[in-house]
Amino acid sequence: MFILTEFKDTVKIPPWKFKRKLNDAITEELNRKLANKVYPNVGLCIALHDIQKIEESYIFPGDGSSHTPVSFRFIVFRPFMEEIIIGKIRNCSVEGVHVTVGFFEDIIIPPQKLQHESRFDETERIWVWEYKTDDGEKHDLFMDEHEIIRFRVVNEVFSETSPTSPQVTGEAEKTETKNSSPYTLWGAIDEPGLGCLSWWENT
Questions:
Q1: Torsion over CA of 118, 154, 163 and 98, rounded to 10 degrees?
Q2: Which CATH homologous superfamily contains domain 84-200?
Q3: First-to-final CA distance of the chain
Q4: Cα–Cα distance between 28 and 7 in angstroms, integer?
Q5: pTM (2 decimals)?
Q6: Terminus of the chain with fewer CB atoms < 10 Å: N or C?
C-alpha cells in the first residue's frame, strides 16, 4: 500500500529560517510542499522518510533565500494492482460504492465489480447484494454507509486538475474548477471473501 519513492528537488529556505538547523528547515519545507499532495504517476505523498543527500546551497542575486539541491525519499500511498485493502464505505451512488481508507477517499467500486447479483436501492441510496443460498433462497445484504469493506484494487487513474475558463451569468462572473480527482483507485468485490466484513463473519 505504501512505497518509498526517490525524489530530487531544490529547496528554497527563506532568510527568517536560517537560524534553524538546515536539515530541520529542509524537512519542514519538503513536508509543506509535498505532504498530502498527489504527484502525477507516483501517488499520494504522505511524509518525508529520509534525506539522502544535501548539496551546496546557493543564493541568487537580489534573492535573500537559500536554494539547496536535495535528494530524498518520501512515503507514498500507491497500492499495487490486485492488492487487497480494507476500508470503510463512505456512501453509495448509481456510479458504485465510494470507499475511504481515512486519509484517502477517492476510491470507487463500480457496479460491474460488485457481487453478482447486486442492485441499487434508489430509496435508501445503497447497493444491495441479492445473496442466493444453496437451497435457492435469496437474502438482501446491504452495503450501508460506514460498513467496513474488503476490496481488491483493479485500476488507478491519474488526472490533471485545472480551473476551467470563467463563465459569465448576467453580471456575475464565476471561475469553476473541474470536479475531478487527481488520483482515483478502482476496486472490485466480485469474488468470495470480498465485500462487507459482516457478510463473512458467520460463514
A1: 30
A2: Nucleic acid-binding proteins (2.40.50.140)
A3: 28
A4: 16
A5: 0.84
A6: C
Residue found under cell 457478510: 199
Tell me how far apart the alpha carbons of residues 125 and 89 are, in angstroms, rounded to a whole number: 13
| Rounded distance between C-alpha atoms, residue 153 and residue 84, angstroms | 6
Mean pLDDT of the chain: 90
- Higher-pLDDT residue of 27 and 173 is 27
Superfamily assignment of 2-77 in CATH? Answer: RNA polymerase Rpb7-like, N-terminal domain (3.30.1490.120)
Q: Mean per-residue pLDDT for 66-92? A: 97
Amino acid at 181: S
Strands 84-93 and 148-158: antiparallel
Whole-angstrom Cα distance, residue 110 to residue 129? 13
Q: pLDDT tens across 43-55, in order?
A: 999 999 999 999 9
Mean pLDDT of 172-191: 74
